[in-house]
Amino acid sequence: RSSSVFAAVDLGASSGRVIAGRPVDGRIVLEEAHRFANRPVRTRGTLHWDILGLYRGVLDGLRAAGAKAGPLTSVGIDSWGVDYGLLDADGVLLGNPVHYRDSRTDGMDAEIERALPARELYGLTGLQRIAINTLYQLTAARGTHQLETARRLLLTPDLISYWLTGVEGTELTIASTTQLVDPRDGTWSRPVAEALGIDMSLFAPMRRPGDPAGTLLPEVLEETGLDGPVPVTAVGAHDTASAVAGVPAGREGFAYICTGTWSLAGVELDAPVLSEESRLANFTNELGVDGTVRYLRNLMGLWLLQECLRAWEAQGDPQELGPLLERAGKLPGLRSVVDAGAPEFLAPGGMPDRIAAACRRTGQPEPRDPAETTRCVLDSLALAHRSVLADAARLSGREVHTVHVVGGGARNALLCRLTADACGLPVVAGPAEAAAYGNVLVQARTAGAVSGGLPELRALLRDSLELRHYEPTGDQASWARAAARVHEHGKEAACA
Ligand code: ADP
Ligand code: LRH
To answer: Would you indicate the residue range of the signal peptide (predicted)?
Structure first.
């Protein structure tokens, strides 16, 4: 079956890509067909996704995948979580989808708390309290003409899938990022929707990874030059679900860190943890491929560095990532650290100044140049990885012996080394395109080109990849002291 070709559409917050994957001689071989920038657009004060530009990139990518890799056996789509488009009664998109970093969700925490106390909400959804959640966005949109006119809500990958096939549906793993799904049975939560006044008829029927999701429309075949029929297969439509499926772990106790725009650090479980302790530690229970639970916390991730790079460029001081990381790697570590999980870093703009201000506020030296700021960001991320993985192990009762770092950050050797040192655990880095691997594997299994559960699929991945290994070095005491420092600052901020 080496003639099977699976196209993974993977839309990340910083770039979209279409990657062709095929099983060859017991390995999975990926070939990038097309990559395109994902640049948000602000109009009249609201930050939007350029959804049609992204869809254009998907069509170009499918054309390139067909041209490079041959006839497509199927297509699978995954994207970042939580965001959605609204359709009217004619199936037409109402406005441009709003970006989760838009400030419309400011103050929604209190609104939601009034309707449904946080403790109860956590028991019903198991989701981390974070303003990006669809629930916060829908609460902010209450009463708008757009929401009142809408007949259907489709999350980003489901919207792309709808445009490609004409079929409306919602894939389970992406639905689980809304804070409107019960993680115990994977159904829409009526109590949450009712408490917040959300019309449940907006939601499309649920499908699971591996389910059929339609076939490419004739107009799409024409635009992409593909020969039909080409089925679309539901994959882990949340990029983090596909990325965790694409973690090349063995049966040992493992944790994962999906490091791209965000750092998603946690463990894979069979059932959600909905305890009060877990809620207070702000852990999320998103749903994964094959009935798994992604028990993790969202950290600000390489967004901090992306935004610094953007700011330096705008100030006429552009930095190249490679040399910048090299300089940062030579600096003394843990000089200043910030809380890489703090909501204060969510919004775009002025990131180097905001990081410097956080250092100043907490009585630490301010980074003086791009290399020092980069070192502060990476030390802070490594430190946050340490805290989250320790909490994940404690709260889930899982032992963690190895940390798998996947996503674009797996290419950042300094981040991987610091994470190994901070966690005091071996780090296995790669693949950078874990979401595409997870996406392709689910499609390939559905088509009968590979078989087995997640352990067998991951074994196939290990045979396909060259992974980099980082052993922990240095003393744990300095990381423990830095962690205590961040913890103290967090408590002071909470009291202020
Ligand atoms: P997303 O899916 O959220 O768009 P990615 O997983 O593509 O993000 O990761 C993008 C990030 O990966 C970049 O912002 C950058 O920090 C990091 N990255 C990508 N390539 C490299 C590289 N060659 N060296 C170091 N870091 C890299
Ligand atoms: C990573 C991610 C993450 C969050 C955020 C919105 O790309 O999907 O898991 O949900 O984006």
So the answer is: none
Instruction: Tell me which of 239, 379, 391, 421 is the catalytic residue.
Output: 239
Tally the C-alpha atoms within 13 A of residue 300's C-alpha that lie toward its C-beta: 25
Which letter does DSSP use for residue 376 in this model? H
Q: Which of 230, 186, 179 is nearest to 205 (CA)?
A: 186
Q: Which two tokens stand for residue 39?
A: 């640049």
Q: Which atom of ligand 1 is nearest to the CA of 413?
A: 25
pLDDT band at 1 (very low <50, low <70, confident <90, very high): very low
Q: How far is the CA of 33 from the centre of ligand 1 (A)?
A: 18
Q: Is the CB of 80 under 6 A from ligand 2?
A: yes
Q: Is 264 close to ligand 2, i.e. is its CB under 6 Å away?
A: yes
Tell me which of 264, 305, 308, 321 to substitute to probe ligand 1's pocket, judged by most ligand atoms within 8 Å of the beta carbon. 321
Task: Tell me the C-alpha to C-alpha distance, in Å, between residue 46 and each of 40, 76, 355.
Answer: 10, 30, 24
> Could you give the CA distance from residue 174 to residue 83 in angstroms, rounded to a whole number?
9
pLDDT at residue number 486: 86
DSSP annotation of 211: S
The string of DSSP codes covering 226-249 is --S--EEE----BHHHHHHHT---
Starting from the CA of residue 413, give the closest ligand: 1
Cβ atoms 470, 429 nearer than 8 A: yes
Q: Which residues contact 296 (CB under 8 A, 6 or more apart)?
A: 240, 264, 265, 266, 267, 283, 284, 286, 388, 392
Ligand 1 contacts CB of residue 412 (under 6 A): yes
d(CA 340, CA 387): 11
**Around Cβ 352, how many Cβ atoms within 10 Å?**
25
User: Which residue's CA is minimally distant from atom 12 of ligand 1?
Assistant: 408
pLDDT of residue 228: 87
Helix segments in 166-215, DSSP class H: 172-175, 190-195
pLDDT in tens, 175-208: 999 999 999 999 999 999 999 999 999 999 999 9
Ligand closest to Cα of 286 equals 2
For 28, the token pair is 């999975």
Does residue 491 have a pLDDT over 80? Answer: no
Ligand 2 lined by 156 (C-beta under 6 Å): no
The response to whether residue 302 sits with its C-beta less than 6 Å from ligand 1 reads yes
Question: ipTM greater than 0.85, yes or no?
Answer: yes
Residue nearest atom 1 in ligand 2 by C-alpha distance: 80
- Give the model's pLDDT for residue 251: 79
What is d(CA 235, CA 164) in angstroms, rounded to the nearest whole number?
15
Ligand 2: which residue has its CA nearest to atom 7? 80
- 162 touches 229 (CB < 8 A): no
